[in-house]
Design a protein that fits this description.
By secondary structure, the protein is an alpha+beta fold. The protein is built from 8 helices and 8 strands; from the N terminus they run H-E-E-H-H-H-H-E-E-H-E-H-E-E-H-E. It is 33% helix and 27% strand.
């Protein structure tokens, strides 16, 4: 998955000459929390958030301030071909809620935490009617080949597999999401093959 497939391209932008009040009014009107500042060629020249603007609102009432005075001039950015997990890592590490997406100097989109959350929820199949089995693995064993075979034999389909390492322990858990199915025979077969089932969840 790459940023291009999940970014918003219905862009709301503003010029650096706009006032703080104008920017806040635009953000309220459009129900957005991030606002890219662009020039006449649609090149990104800055970035503001509602928190940034509210922090200088009182000051802007005492003296004439424009976005050029308060905008972030070199914001963290993404490229349309950036892997989605890299964008997610950047948002988390830098503690920002969104990234302008720039290609050849032009603003082409915005990717936010909400966009990335939606992508990963879709990727994991959480929007699909599903069931889930969690199995524990100790040592170097890998139960996935046997698990996949058992699921297939029972006519079920795997939607996603998540690896959940345990802190400070030499064991981990696989969380396997299946399309809506009867879990009892699958769990029974897994246990017969020595695969430890630590949780099974009814159809959602």
């Amino acid at each position: 998955m790459i940023v291009r497939h999940w970014m918003s391209t219905d862009l709301v932008t503003i010029k650096k000459e706009a006032s703080i009040q104008e920017a806040l009014a635009l953000m309220k009107q459009e129900s957005i929390r991030h606002l890219p500042v662009v020039n006449t060629e649609n090149e990104l020249v800055g970035w503001v958030t509602d928190a940034d603007l509210r922090g200088v609102l009182i000051a802007s009432m005492l003296e004439e301030l424009t976005l050029e005075d308060v905008m972030i001039r070199r914001p963290y950015t993404s490229h349309p071909t950036m892997p989605l997990e890299e964008a997610a890592r950047l948002l988390l590490e830098k503690r920002v809620g969104g990234l302008p997406v720039v290609e050849k100097g032009k603003l082409v989109g915005i990717i936010t935490i909400v966009d990335i959350l939606s992508a990963f929820i879709t990727f994991l199949g959480l929007f699909t009617e599903s069931s889930r089995v969690d199995v524990k693995v100790s040592g170097a064993g890998n139960p996935l080949p046997d698990l996949a075979r058992i699921v297939k034999q029972r006519g079920a389909e795997i939607i996603s597999v998540c690896h959940l390492p345990a802190e400070g322990e030499k064991e981990y858990t696989y969380s396997i999401r299946l399309r809506k199915t009867d879990l009892e025979p699958i769990v029974a077969d897994l246990e017969k093959h020595g695969i430890e089932v630590v949780g099974s969840y009814k159809d959602m």
